[in-house]
Design goal:
Chain A is mostly helical. The first copy, chain A, has 26 helices and 8 strands. Chain A has 2 domains: 80-455, no CATH class; 494-644, STAS domain (Transcription Regulator spoIIAA), CATH 3.30.750.
């Protein structure tokens, strides 16, 4: 079979243009075929390439470098790079400290846990991660997600101990999930959350988080535990007469204005990026001083209160390794881990493409997973890459992951020595900081672009958005995943087909819908199938082709034109076919036979040709019915039609 | 935008071959686009086509004919057709009566319920169905599935009343599921069970059913309630010394031999199809007479016993319409309904393609659903199309669904008058009949063909098979569905890419893997992407292209050839693109810029071009970088390379 050549009989005639045979390549053996599929699926980045043809000692070094990229880039590290990293590190540290305290509240945790999570995880990431720009720490969306999911299991106010233990359990399994995906090279799974769905989900989460901040911002004491917009609005307006605290509102509003102005300045003038970056810390310092001096806390202005002054206590013994809580923690961990991963990988890829270096998705997952596993044993909750802080890190001129080490060190000093200073920080300031931070997650431009490009994508985007805002974070997530999957299924169930015509003055055949000047060939119908033919679409494809034929025949009958004698199926876009697909083709062939029409194939690909031969289909329709190009096929068919006339 | 034309600047020069512009068709408006998507997805068969431009009265007639196809074909019915239908109907009736009694046992029901289900449903199908060859009634696989699923809820021996009520509830919801899928035009959902998975599942079910028959065949009294091969074998060999009944075995074995010989004769000589068709009835008559005369039932030969002599009693009041049992019945009904549908639609399509008529999948589902809903109210359990009886029906020369009416009438007479005759029928005969019937469900040839064509399909097939045989029917089904989905996901995650070269003496560019004689163009790398570019594969695609480039550059460096200046992406197979895909292209463009390589696109389709323009991508890379064919693109690029030199 491997030497079968399909020279059409016409190619021997002298007056006929050269017709090239369709290539039937030597068949790959089973093992080779299997290996190449596995390689493209799981090792598409060819991770072992540098290891090839190297001595053993070098292989060990390369292996260590693969796990700890710091060993690779660390060797070319120098003082110039360190200056960039130091400035960037200090900037993101000043940004992360107030954010961390705020995000802990979203996760229903005491403030120190946010700071803990900005100490250990960034340190580990710096040794294992491959992104140079990402800033690691707790983030708003994951904090909110954890907070809502965990609250369903334990009440953080009445059962703080069980709640905390479940936090560490979830963090542990989030890390395990991430690392496992990386080790098993299943990183591509997160690609199933489409860009559009992520845009919608993030925007929805941002609105939800901002709404949650109304509690601190307005000084409301009794606030709903639901996160949907309707419950929150009821709660806000229900307490308008006896729940709002005007002093809190004044402090919050004035500093929010300050933060938004700073943000605006930073946006207008890229050189002033440090203005919005240090504005939060300035707000904290000023407002804390103000409250401390005026004793506003006695007038109902809620303050952070005493934060424990100690570095991360070990928490391995708090993780549930058995019982029902193990399962609960596992479930929440998997969800939080996946979302955290999506965010981190998206950030990593964005900045990598800006500076043109490669981020290895699978390696990245192992790094993030390891940092969360270790984090769960040192009183941290799920950390990941933060959009806002990574952007600041990039603009502040970070060179390597050393900026994360600098940040981590500053946070360590803060936790060790400075926490008492935050005692009088008003909660309203933290709310303002979070509101001004999450506003950046709402990406109008992306949403508008999605609307312009693909309406179905926009539906996915809005579905995720509305799901989060009006119901809950999980609902939004579920909608996003469901629509993403539905889109894939739609794609594989209803492939496009097109009628081709000849473009004038060329031998090129193209879709007559796209090129109205293309002309049909009398007696021949040319159909292109725009997809692999699988069980999910084989019946549709067959019936669609027959419908094209029926419509065309009806037209021809009305205009008294010659009937169709050949159906040419252009197979270039048909990248693969399976048993159901071949069945469909056999049925198509039989139906055409009944109508006295011949089936001709043009340009089947290697893989399709292999399978057609394995099934004996070419023997059924005749081997001389398979051509390299549509032009060749049309030429041969036309000759036959002319001969008959 | 709608008049934008991309004439490459080179096309103006006199000495350059004519380069046709890439067609940017007028943009469809949103509503039109949406309508066409909905139409192709749900109404791809254009069901309203005959209604177009018809007077109102004619529309009513057409509408009635659409629901009751008998009104259409009935008008051209004649005596010649009736002769065919009468013979076919009598033949399938003789086959179905013993099968029905046996299948009832598989569903843990008294024998009359199988007969009931061969009376009402075929009658209704004859009026509403569009297949001419299908034979309706209870089938082995669905009976087994119902039996195993329902037994988990109620014990048919100790709680026969609850069990029976749940049977009708499940049947009701099976019908509702089928009709709903048809009405909502979601018929394509059953295409997601791939052919390979169905082959494996059916073979596994056949083996499981045959194993279950060992109980009746060997005369074992205490038999396991599990269906997996290991439990059954333990049960069979555990009772070898005190459970087997030799008289039963003698009767069973001799008649099984008779049936298999008859089957063989029918296979060898197609004209003798009636031999295997009436063999079961002959076996029943002979063995019943034998047992009645010899009183073998006193020697431990189990017999059917008294069957109630009455036509279907109404059972609407037995269906659970509330409470926990509603939910149980609903779940089981959905599963059984889907499986029944898969079988019926597969049969309908097979015979339709043999006789070249169309079976409307959605209409078919409504017919099957209605018949099961009405069946559930008249003491029937889930009926569908039977493989074995439909084949006999076809070979006996059935012309229309009237053969089902004939069969139904014969069954009616049997139920009304003849049931006492079956009192002494030995169970062993029923087991033999079932064994000889289900053997036909094991399709070795299909399995071998699947192995030859597609290894992954074979895995799905074997997974479903082994799942059914070694675990349970549901497990096998779950495996089949899971592997089918995994295959789709794999397809959309890892699209193929290929490097193209010029085929000598043509201007055709093809995969150099498939056509080793194709030559690369110096300074140009041509890559073809073989799939729509979606969020699920956009990152992979981008990285794969960059990897091709890196590999090629490494090769060129080693052989001191000129470096690559142009990357041509052949977009013909790229049928669609979404926001993530366009992002990936933008990132690709930026990466290429860093390497001083120009990005060129060849032959983007209509839909892709629309979206590229909506996103402003052509402005980014330059509009003169988009060509109609690879040949045009190569020509222009080569000219530029020559000019530079």
């Amino acid at each position: 079979m491997d030497t079968k050549s399909l020279i059409s009989s016409d190619s021997q005639r002298p007056n006929v243009p050269y017709i090239h045979k369709v290539g039937v390549p030597p068949k790959q053996n089973l093992l080779k075929e299997f290996k190449s599929t596995v390689k493209e699926t799981f090792f598409s980045d060819d991770p072992l390439r540098p290891f090839k043809d190297q001595p053993k000692s070098r292989k060990i070094v390369l292996g260590l470098q693969a796990v700890f990229p710091i060993l690779e880039w660390g060797r070319s590290y120098n003082l110039r790079k360190f200056r960039g990293d130091l400035i960037a590190g200090l900037t993101i540290a000043s940004l992360c400290i107030p954010q961390d305290i705020g995000y802990s509240k979203l996760a229903n945790l005491p403030p120190q846990y946010g700071l803990y999570s900005s100490f250990v995880p960034p340190l580990i990431y710096a040794f294992m991660g491959s992104s140079r720009d990402i800033a690691i720490g707790p983030v708003a969306v994951v904090s909110l997600l954890l907070g809502t999911l965990l609250r369903k299991e334990y009440d953080p106010d009445t059962e703080p101990n069980e709640y905390l233990r479940l936090v560490f359990t979830a963090t542990f399994f989030a890390g395990i999930t991430q690392a496992t995906l990386g080790v098993l090279r299943l990183g591509f799974l997160i690609d199933f959350l489409s860009h559009a769905a992520v845009v919608g989900f993030m925007a929805g989460a941002a609105i939800t988080i901002a709404l949650q901040q109304l509690k601190g911002f307005l000084g409301i004491k009794h606030f709903t535990k639901e996160t949907d917009i309707i419950s929150v609005m009821k709660s806000v307006f229900g307490s308008i007469h006896h729940g709002w605290n005007w002093q809190t509102i004044v402090i919050g509003a004035s500093f929010l204005t300050f933060l938004l102005v700073a943000k605006y300045i930073g946006k207008k003038n890229k050189k002033l990026f440090w203005v919005p970056a240090i504005a939060p810390l300035i707000s904290v310092v000023l407002s804390t001083f103000f409250v401390y001096v005026t004793h506003a806390n006695h007038d109902g202005v809620a303050i952070v209160g005493r934060i424990e002054k100690r570095i991360n206590p070990p928490s391995l013994d708090k993780i549930y390794f058995s019982g029902e809580n193990l399962l609960k923690g596992f479930k929440i961990g998997v969800v939080a881990g996946m979302i955290a991963l999506t965010e981190a990988v998206a950030i990593g890829r964005t900045f990598a493409s800006m500076k043109d270096y490669q981020v290895d998705g699978n390696k990245e997952m192992v790094a993030l997973g390891t940092m969360n596993v270790i984090g769960s044993m040192t009183s941290c909750y799920v950390a990941t890459g933060s959009f806002s802080r990574s952007a600041v890190n990039y603009m502040a001129g970070c060179q390597t992951a050393v900026s994360n080490i600098v940040m981590s060190f500053v946070v360590f000093l803060t936790v060790k020595f400075l926490t008492p200073l935050f005692e009088y920080t008003p909660n309203a300031i933290l709310s303002s900081i979070i509101i001004s931070a999450v506003i950046g997650l709402i990406d109008y431009d992306a949403a508008i672009l999605i609307w312009k490009i693909d309406k179905l994508d926009f539906v996915a985007c809005m579905g995720a958005f509305l799901g989060v805002v009006f119901k809950s974070v999980e609902t939004g997530l579920l909608i996003a995943v469901a629509i993403s999957f539905a889109k894939i299924l739609l794609q594989v169930t209803r492939p496009r087909t097109a009628i081709l015509g000849k473009i004038p003055m060329t031998s090129v055949y193209r879709n007559i819908g796209q090129y109205p000047e293309a002309t049909k060939v009398p007696g021949v119908l040319i159909v292109r199938i725009d997809s692999a033919i699988y069980f999910s679409n084989s019946n549709y494809t067959k019936e669609r082709i027959l419908r094209w034929l029926t419509e065309e025949e009806d037209n021809l009958k009305e205009t008294y034109q010659p009937k169709i004698e050949f159906l040419i199926v252009e197979m270039s876009p048909v990248t693969d076919i399976d048993t159901s697909g071949i069945h469909a083709f056999e049925e198509l062939y039989r139906s055409l036979q009944k109508r006295d029409i011949q089936l001709v194939l043009a340009n089947p690909g290697q893989c399709v040709l292999d399978k057609l031969y394995a099934s004996g289909f070419p023997d059924l329709i005749g081997e001389n019915k398979i051509f390299l190009t549509v032009a060749d096929a049309v030429h041969t068919c036309s000759l036959k039609i002319v001969h008959e006339v």
